[in-house]
């Protein structure tokens, strides 16, 4: 906080204390919708358009589990006309504020409550709900329909305008679903496997008939002086699935590709996917539809 | 870390703003872990660098030498950085991020600036600027008990003088030493173990040794609940919960639906081996290992709530459990080799050459084993070496790092 801005804060505080009012400066008469994740933020903005003021709490390129909010944002949440969250345990760091807003009587919309929930299939979290529903556009259709119903109820919005925007966006999400179906059809059935250390593609796999093969992706300390045993888990996953690409977050994908070639005689590409956050504009996944398309193209290109 | 304010007036301002519910640019309202680089861009103090999320574990070896210099070796780029100069340090503990060093004046806390956040279904990895956080004053040897989170909850310190101090871990992440509470109890070799918002505190019996644990609430007040734990001697946190070792077994404390549960895991009946006096394992796993004596290894599975005794194939000075699919157990032999043991059969799978023989023979520093999923690390103080061992590949020494001074104490960080 610069000295100047701190000064402003103090003045605002003083005014607030004197009048006993909240933050009138933010109030332009439109209802306020506060959204937790930036993926849902994009979707809400598409549906509500200019009919409400939308505040998205999670910044680009952040981690939905652990991002933190300012006291001001927490305060705005309490004064919101609707709070939209992902739910299913995604927003761990934010949950206390979500609960507090709900306790204050702020209307809430939880995406996880309007979809058919999938449980994690494996690992320590097996059997617990998987919150990453957005990797399936059909689930997102359910969420958009639920959002539409919640948003048209807000005082001060033009319900017809919201309905029209929701219909238009639903069309685009359904189009995305159809497009992904076509894109993935190019991948032979026997190669529809995502060998990955990402944990978010359970819903996508169910929708488009992929098998998710979790694999240990050797990282920095291992690749510094690798042995065949370091790569065994990944090599087994690659060989049993016959894929030509693995999808992994790796800070040194080139080193991994080289190690696989040298130590195990395996030739694959190592490709990253977008997972839990939109990027800044120009970052490659600036909105939900783009994020999904880019991932689908990378998967199709890697496995074709 | 985003918009962290250490100065008291700023915090007071933040509190007022939180009440007013509006303002310009306040610190975070929660003590949850930091988000990515984008949010830290709003921090224009220039005083505190932001935490950034990274793609893989930012593993490091943080050592302390005779002069008290805290040195951090980055295992990814192989650079070494001096983090602090503490003067003489006698022991060290880490939660994978903070280094708690026992000095003549108390405990110095150093933030290694690297950590892993365990979400159970996956992990997130962070880097921030390392820094010396501050001192906790206390007298006598200290036992430190930490949780699996290095951004929230508490860290418990128990000094031999009977000073039991619960630190606010979230405040450590913000660069401040904040004592949630400090209790003066009967001096003994005890511990204060955080479990969720609650804690377990040992109490001595008539002999002066720890005889039981009492449950404390979030403010450090006894709840009235207590559990016998004769000769409580060690504590460790596993994926399942907090473990306190007793002479006849262990207590396992977990929080389920906001309620503290303490269960007893008795040693097997007719076990003629003493309970371990220390536990070690891989972060995020349920099973830990400890020595009954040089010839026998206890494995405590906190998920199955069971003990298993293995005959050590070679005499051991230290042991830890990898708890992977192959049930690897890694030990330091009494002659300074790293031994890889099949935790299922007790068979010796491989050993390195003598790596820390001189350190053990001459009593130089504390040679220490740290394990992760793929590698084990061993500090060899007298030899001035840090070794990286590939336990799954015939105990191959993958890398060796020379150190400028003897690394007397070792903390595995970025975990």
Overview of the structural elements:
The complex is a heterodimer of chains A (304) and B (415). Chain A is of the alpha/beta class and 304 residues long. Helices cover 47% and strands 10% of the residues of chain A. Chain A has helices at residues 3-19, 38-48, 71-78, 95-103, 137-152, 159-185, 202-208, 220-224, 228-241, 253-264, 288-303, and strands spanning 32-35, 53-56, 82-85, 108-110, 193-196, 211-214, 245-247, 269-271. Chain A is elongated. Chain B is mainly β and 415 residues long. Chain B has a domain at 271-415: 7 Propeller (Methylamine Dehydrogenase, Chain H), CATH 2.130.10. Helices cover 7% and strands 46% of the residues of chain B. The longest helix of chain B has 13 residues, at 8-20. The two termini of chain B are 18 Å apart. The interface between A and B is large, with 63 and 59 residues. Chain A: InterPro entries: AdhesinB (IPR006129), AztC-like (IPR047701), Bact_metal-bind_prot9 (IPR050492), Lipoprotein_PsaA-like (IPR006128), ZnuA-like (IPR006127). Chain A: It is found in: Cell envelope. Chain A: Residues 1-24 form the signal peptide. Chain A: This is Zinc ABC transporter substrate-binding protein AztC.
């Amino acid at each position: 906080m610069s000295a100047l801005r701190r000064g402003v804060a103090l003045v605002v505080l003083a005014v607030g204390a004197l009048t006993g009012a909240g933050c009138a400066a933010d109030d332009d008469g439109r209802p306020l919708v506060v959204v937790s994740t930036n993926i849902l933020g994009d979707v809400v903005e598409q549906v509500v358009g200019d009919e409400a003021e939308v505040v998205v709490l999670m910044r680009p390129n952040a981690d939905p589990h652990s991002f933190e909010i300012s006291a001001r944002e927490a305060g705005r949440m309490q004064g919101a006309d609707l709070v939209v969250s992902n739910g299913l345990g995604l927003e761990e760091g934010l949950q206390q504020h979500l609960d507090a807003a709900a306790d204050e009587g702020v209307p809430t919309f939880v995406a996880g409550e309007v979809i058919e929930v999938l449980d994690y299939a494996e690992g320590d979290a097996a059997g617990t709900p998987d919150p990453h529903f957005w990797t399936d556009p059909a689930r997102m259709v359910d969420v958009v329909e639920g959002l539409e119903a919640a948003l048209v109820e807000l005082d001060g919005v033009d319900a017809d305008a919201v309905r029209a925007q929701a219909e238009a966006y639903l069309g685009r999400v359904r189009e995305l679903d159809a497009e992904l179906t076509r894109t993935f059809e190019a991948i032979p059935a026997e190669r529809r496997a995502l060998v990955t250390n990402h944990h978010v593609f359970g819903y996508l796999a169910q929708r488009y008939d992929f098998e998710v093969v979790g694999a240990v992706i050797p990282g920095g300390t291992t690749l510094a002086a690798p042995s065949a045993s370091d790569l065994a888990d990944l090599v087994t996953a690659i060989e049993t699935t016959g894929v030509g690409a693995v999808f992994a977050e790796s800070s040194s994908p080139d080193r991994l590709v080289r190690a696989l070639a040298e130590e195990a005689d395996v030739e694959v590409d190592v490709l990253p996917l977008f997972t839990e956050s939109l990027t800044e504009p120009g970052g490659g996944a600036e909105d939900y539809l783009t994020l999904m398309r880019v991932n689908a193209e990378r998967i199709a290109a890697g496995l074709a | 870390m985003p918009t962290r304010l250490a100065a008291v007036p700023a915090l007071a301002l933040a509190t007022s703003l939180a009440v007013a519910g509006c303002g310009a640019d306040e610190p975070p309202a929660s003590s949850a872990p930091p988000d990515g680089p984008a949010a830290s861009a709003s921090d224009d103090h220039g005083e505190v660098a932001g935490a950034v999320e990274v793609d893989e574990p930012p593993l490091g070896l943080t050592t302390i030498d005779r002069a008290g210099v805290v040195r951090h070796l980055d295992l990814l780029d192989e650079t070494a950085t001096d983090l602090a100069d503490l003067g003489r340090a006698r022991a060290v503990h880490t939660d994978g991020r903070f280094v708690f060093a026992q000095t003549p004046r108390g405990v110095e806390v150093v933030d290694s600036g690297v950590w892993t956040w365990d979400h159970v279904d996956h992990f997130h990895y962070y880097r921030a600027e390392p820094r010396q956080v501050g001192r906790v004053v206390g007298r006598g040897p200290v036992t430190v008990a930490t949780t699996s989170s290095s951004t929230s909850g508490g860290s418990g310190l128990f000094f031999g003088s009977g000073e039991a101090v619960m630190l606010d871990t979230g405040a450590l992440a913000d660069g401040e030493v904040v004592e949630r509470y400090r209790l003066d109890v009967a001096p003994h070799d005890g511990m204060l173990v955080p479990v969720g918002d609650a804690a377990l505190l040992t109490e001595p019996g008539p002999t002066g040794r720890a005889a039981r644990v009492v449950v404390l609430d979030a403010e450090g007040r006894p709840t009235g609940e207590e559990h016998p734990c004769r000769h409580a001697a060690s504590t460790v946190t596993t994926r399942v919960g907090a473990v306190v070792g007793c002479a006849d077994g262990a207590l396992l404390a977990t929080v389920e639906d906001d309620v503290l549960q303490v269960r007893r895991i008795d040693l097997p009946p007719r076990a003629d081996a003493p309970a371990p006096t220390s536990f070690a394992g891989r972060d995020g796993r349920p099973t830990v290992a400890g020595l009954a004596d040089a010839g026998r290894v206890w494995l405590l599975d906190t998920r199955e709530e069971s003990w298993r005794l293995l005959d050590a194939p070679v005499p051991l000075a230290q042991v830890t459990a990898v708890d992977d699919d192959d049930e690897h157990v890694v030990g330091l032999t009494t002659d300074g080799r790293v031994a890889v043991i099949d935790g299922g059969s007790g068979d010796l799978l491989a050993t390195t050459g003598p790596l820390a023989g001189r350190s053990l023979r001459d009593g130089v520093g504390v040679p220490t084993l740290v394990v992760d999923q793929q590698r084990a690390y061993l500090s060899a103080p007298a030899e001035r070496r840090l070794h990286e061992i590939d336990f799954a590949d015939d105990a191959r020494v993958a890398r060796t790092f020379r150190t400028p001074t003897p690394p007397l104490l070792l903390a595995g960080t970025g975990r």
